[in-house]
Amino acid sequence: MDGTVTTTEDPYALFQDWMAEATKGEINDPNAVCLATATPDGRPSARMVLLKGVDARGFVFYTNLDSRKGGELAANPFAALCFHWKTLQRSIRVEGKVEAVTEAEADAYYASRARTSRLGAWASKQSRPLESRFALEKAVAEYGLRYAVGEIPRPPFWSGFRVLPARIEFWRDMPFRLHERRVFHSDGAAWRLEALYP
């Protein structure tokens, strides 16, 4: 017996509880999360992104599809997320397959962004060499003129991804480094829960 048990406890509800506490306690960007991807031959890379949605399907973030992370996810559609809230002394790790959000989801989120952020999505050749700051600012200004009137359409190269978790680990700091670690595993139909040694 490995200590794993089927559970009716909902890891998404627990995540929402912790996120609500982080939103009250963290000074900046409580939804900031480290996103790890890998190249087709398995070389990892990680960067910070902002979580823009979570529901019973998974965890959503948005990006330029031509960026490094976009290319890595297209070639190897698996990722890991790591939330760390220092003031709460808590962390959550998420691992799973990644799928594209729907066009409607991407359109809705893009439309909710500030105007300058929408222009920036058009202007930024994300992850590629930047010849000068002036070149970026010029591109933003040019797109500002192009879309001076009316809505700014979502660029075809800008969308989102949803991490479909197979594993979610909740870590909580405890005295003497005897931390609490609880891991939810999904088989696609139910969650199994186990405790891990710290």
List keywords for this structure.
alpha+beta; Pnp Oxidase, Chain A; 198 residues; 5 helices; 10-stranded antiparallel β-sheet
Quick structural gist:
This protein has 198 residues and is of the alpha+beta class.
Description:
The chain has 198 residues and is an alpha+beta fold. The chain has one domain: Pnp Oxidase, Chain A. The chain has helices at residues 11-25, 68-75, 103-112, 115-123, 133-146, and strands at residues 5-7, 32-38, 44-50, 53-55, 58-64, 78-85, 90-100, 158-172, 180-186, 191-196. Strands 1, 2, 3, 4, 5, 6, 7, 8, 9 and 10 form a ten-stranded antiparallel β-sheet that branches. The mean pLDDT is 95.
Sequence-ordered SSE layout with sheet pairings:
Blueprint: E1 5-7, H1 11-25, E2 32-38, E3 44-50, E4 53-55, E5 58-64, H2 68-75, E6 78-85, E7 90-100, H3 103-112, H4 115-123, H5 133-146, E8 158-172, E9 180-186, E10 191-196
Antiparallel strand pairs: 1-10, 2-3, 2-6, 4-5, 5-8, 6-7, 7-8, 8-9, 9-10
Helix pairs in contact: 4-5
Architecture (CATH level 2) name: Roll
Any idea how many domains? 1
Number of strands: 10
Query: What is the class in the CATH system?
Result: Mainly Beta
- Low-confidence segments, given as residue ranges, are none
Number of helices: 5
Q: Over all CA atoms, what is the radius of gyration? A: 19 Å
Note the run of SSEs as H and E: EHEEEEHEEHHHEEE
Give the structural class: alpha+beta
The mean pLDDT is 95
The helicity comes to 25-40%
- Main sheet, how many strands, which sense, barrel? 10 strands, antiparallel
Task: State the CATH superfamily name.
Answer: Electron Transport, Fmn-binding Protein, Chain A
N- to C-terminal distance: 19 Å
* Principal-axis shape: elongated
CATH topology: Pnp Oxidase, Chain A
DSSP strand content: 35-45%
